[in-house]
């Protein structure tokens, strides 16, 4: 969680300095969800992500250097500078990509889960999506198909209360997204998205259920988006006081620290050591990204098609 | 060689590829229990099981998207779209996901999905079941588009599409399904990206594909009667377009016409005409001619439907105008 937080604070700073092109959408305040869920996953499991995907990518085990380089548009990035923040993927750890289309990941996750089932593997797919995305038609199609076919997939709704600049209440009549599970004949569960332990435990049940042939689960993690929709968002749609209050009262990292200290699992000193180690990693990632070359013009056409097309496999 | 129908040829292709590679599977609406609207999947589930020949919910978005997701996780899905028109329901999955994934993620993965899309005018199916929309997909880098006109290519192109590591759209004209033709025995593959010269001639090059190719060949016979020898090219793949074959033919004939069932505006003919105008204009002895449907949705009434179809006589007349 600290790795996600500090990485994103660095990205925020670099973006505001004008060193990062494009758009950046930060996950700050929602770290407990990706972390709690992905702690239950193995390398061979899959996730699909959103346009707010740094947290999921890090939690699934991606490396910070190629992530930062990708955000800079450098050739050493995960996608050789062709994806950027909204399209980071690391297929080597089963991270099937952030998605610039809201609600674009549902069907891909269902398909990856279908492949796992057809191949006789006990791997699973997790689809992260937001409350705004839950109103896309793709939600219905993918959840229904996954439920009908008992696919090993976990749908994780990160209800951060904001669909871009529009509050949840104005676009959605139901109190809980998790309640929609009833319409698909699958379990639905609400978790405290700012409590990594609660996320971990309930996600563990859902992942295990998927792994053992029980089919999909819809988890709804209640949380709050601390940062604007994107870096630079003037946030005219909500008060600064509201954001500050949420962060003060319900920061998932503060809550984690308080609990591990109270339960004597880690000392303040040990937590500080972890933070220092992560800070060093992030400095290295920044340096790597800054020093890396941009793509060469000849790379423009590379990776569009598989050369030759026909596979010998 | 045996003579079999277009539909049987696609069945052979599926069977052989599913036999050869257990990562290949097919899903779509009404394909397993019913065997497909045109019988193009009959017998496949009995041979390969209902897990590999899957009836899906009526959820085009999920069908295409799940095909893409399955490909990312190591499968080689063939997805049936029921009618090409329904590709519109799943366009995000086609052009934002399937077409972009390899490039956008820096070549980390392959996306070996085949979308089968029955298209074209048939028996008053009207505006939402009759379209030829192949040209939409020329405009999207990352896709390949094939469109056979005969059973041999139907088999050969489908097999090549399944083996291709890139996403391929496979359009198959509904009128062609019962049409018979010779199909070579054995592992018959038609190369993607290669047009074929199906009739040699010296006076005009007529470029076509799919069902219209048969009208063009009839027209070519009729033109021969009036002393015009048409060279006929079956495009077979429309993305990427085989410029080489087209250019060589035009260098010989100096005249060119493109014929397709799709609407003329923004059609494949427009692209080919532009390519020729950019690169071969000096070579031409006459203006480039395009023949396509008028700019209207396909009407229901048989009387009106007939007016949007291109007949042999239309092709003969158009060719004569530039010869």
Keywords:
heterodimer; A: 313 residues; alpha/beta; 5-stranded parallel beta sheet; two-stranded antiparallel ribbon; 7 strands; B: 323 residues; 5-stranded mixed beta sheet; 36% helix
Average predicted confidence as pLDDT of chain B = 97
Q: Main beta sheet of chain A: strand number and arrangement?
A: 5 strands, parallel
Q: Determine the strand fraction of chain A and express it as a percent band.
A: 5-15%
Strand order of the largest sheet of chain A: 1-2-3-7-6
Let me know the largest β-sheet of chain B. Answer: 7 strands, mixed
Can you count the helices of chain B?
11
Number of helices of chain A: 11
Helical fraction of chain A equals: 40-55%
Would you kindly provide a written description of the structure presented here, covering whatever features stand out?
The complex is a heterodimer of chains A (313) and B (323). In chain A, the strands form 2 sheets. A 5-stranded parallel beta sheet of chain A has the order 1-2-3-7-6, with helices on both faces. A two-stranded antiparallel sheet of chain A has the order 4-5. Helix content of chain A is 41%, strand content 10%. Chain A starts with a helix and ends in a 22-residue tail after the last helix. Chain A is globular. With 313 residues, chain A is an alpha/beta fold. Chain A has helices at residues 2-16, 31-38, 54-59, 64-72, 106-118, 137-148, 168-171, 196-211, 240-250, 252-262, 268-291, and strands at 46-48, 125-130, 153-159, 162-163, 166-167, 188-192, 217-222. In chain A, 52% of the residues are buried. The model of chain B has no long low-confidence stretch (mean pLDDT 97). The two termini of chain B are 37 Å apart. Chain B is built from 11 helices and 14 strands. Chain B has helices at residues 6-20, 44-48, 60-72, 91-98, 101-104, 151-163, 210-225, 243-253, 268-279, 302-308, 312-322; strands spanning 2-5, 24-28, 53-55, 76-80, 114-119, 144-146, 168-173, 180-183, 196-199, 204-208, 230-234, 237-239, 256-263, 289-293. At the A-B interface, helix 5 and helix 6 of A face helix 3, helix 4 and helix 5 of B.
């Amino acid at each position: 969680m600290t790795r996600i937080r500090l990485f994103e604070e660095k990205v925020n700073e670099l973006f505001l300095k004008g060193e990062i092109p494009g758009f950046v959408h930060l996950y700050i305040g929602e770290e407990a969800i990706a972390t709690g869920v992905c702690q239950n996953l193995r390398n061979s499991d899959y996730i699909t992500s959103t346009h707010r995907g740094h947290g999921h990518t890090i939690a699934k085990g991606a490396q910070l250097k190629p992530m930062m380089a990708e955000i800079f548009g450098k050739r050493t990035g995960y996608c050789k500078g062709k994806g950027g923040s909204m399209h980071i993927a690391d297929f080597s750890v089963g991270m099937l990509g952030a998605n610039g289309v809201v609600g674009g990941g549902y069907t891909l996750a269902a398909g990856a889960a279908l492949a796992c089932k057809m191949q006789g593997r006990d791997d699973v797919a997790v689809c992260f999506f937001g409350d705004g995305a839950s109103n896309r038609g793709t939600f219905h199609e993918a959840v229904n198909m996954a439920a009908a076919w008992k696919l090993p997939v976990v749908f994780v709704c990160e209800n951060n209360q904001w669909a871009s600049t529009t509050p949840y209440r104005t676009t959605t009549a139901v109190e809980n997204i998790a309640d929609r599970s009833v319409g698909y004949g699958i379990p639905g569960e609400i978790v405290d998205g700012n409590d990594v332990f609660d996320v971990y435990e309930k996600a563990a049940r859902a992942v295990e259920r998927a792994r053992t042939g029980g089919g999909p689960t819809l988890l709804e993690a209640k949380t709050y988006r601390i940062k604007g929709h994107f870096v630079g968002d003037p946030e005219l749609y909500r008060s600064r006081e509201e954001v500050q209050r949420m962060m003060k009262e319900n920061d998932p990292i503060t809550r984690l620290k308080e609990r591990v200290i109270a339960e004597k699992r880690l000392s303040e000193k040990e937590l500080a050591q972890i933070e220092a180690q992560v800070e060093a990693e992030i400095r290295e990632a920044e340096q790597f990204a800054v020093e890396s070359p941009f793509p060469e013009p000849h790379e423009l056409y590379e990776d569009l098609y598989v050369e030759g097309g026909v596979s010998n496999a | 060689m045996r003579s079999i129908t277009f539909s049987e040829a696609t069945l052979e292709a599926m069977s052989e590829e599913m036999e050869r590679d257990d990562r290949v599977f097919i899903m779509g609406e009404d394909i397993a229990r019913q065997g497909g609207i045109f019988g193009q999947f009959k017998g496949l589930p009995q041979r390969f099981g209902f897990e590999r020949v899957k009836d899906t919910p009526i959820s085009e978005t999920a069908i295409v998207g799940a095909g893409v997701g399955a490909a990312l996780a190591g499968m080689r899905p063939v997805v049936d779209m029921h009618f090409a028109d329904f590709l519109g329901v799943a366009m995000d999955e086609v052009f934002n996901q399937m077409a972009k994934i390899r490039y956008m993620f820096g070549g980390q993965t392959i996306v070996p999905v085949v979308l089968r899309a029955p298209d074209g005018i048939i028996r008053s199916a009207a505006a939402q079941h009759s379209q030829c929309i192949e040209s939409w997909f020329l405009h999207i880098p990352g896709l390949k588009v094939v469109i056979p006109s005969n059973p041999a290519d139907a088999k050969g192109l489908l097999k090549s599409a399944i083996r291709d590591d890139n996403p391929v759209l496979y359009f198959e004209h509904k009128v062609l399904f019962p049409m018979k033709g010779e199909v070579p025995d054995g592992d018959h593959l038609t190369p993607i990206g290669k047009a074929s010269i199906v009739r040699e001639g010296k006076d005009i090059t007529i470029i076509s594909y799919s069902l219209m190719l048969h009208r063009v060949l009839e027209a070519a016979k009729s033109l021969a009667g009036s002393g015009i020898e048409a060279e006929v090219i079956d495009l077979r793949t429309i993305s990427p377009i085989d410029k080489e074959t087209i250019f060589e033919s035009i260098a010989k004939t100096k005249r060119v016409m493109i014929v397709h069932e799709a609407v003329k505006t923004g059609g494949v003919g427009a692209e080919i005409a532009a390519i020729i105008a950019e690169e071969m204009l000096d070579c031409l002895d006459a203006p480039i001619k395009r023949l396509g449907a008028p700019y209207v949705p396909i009407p229901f009434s048989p009387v009106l439907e007939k007016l949007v179809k291109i007949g042999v006589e239309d092709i003969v007349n158009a060719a004569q105008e530039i010869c």
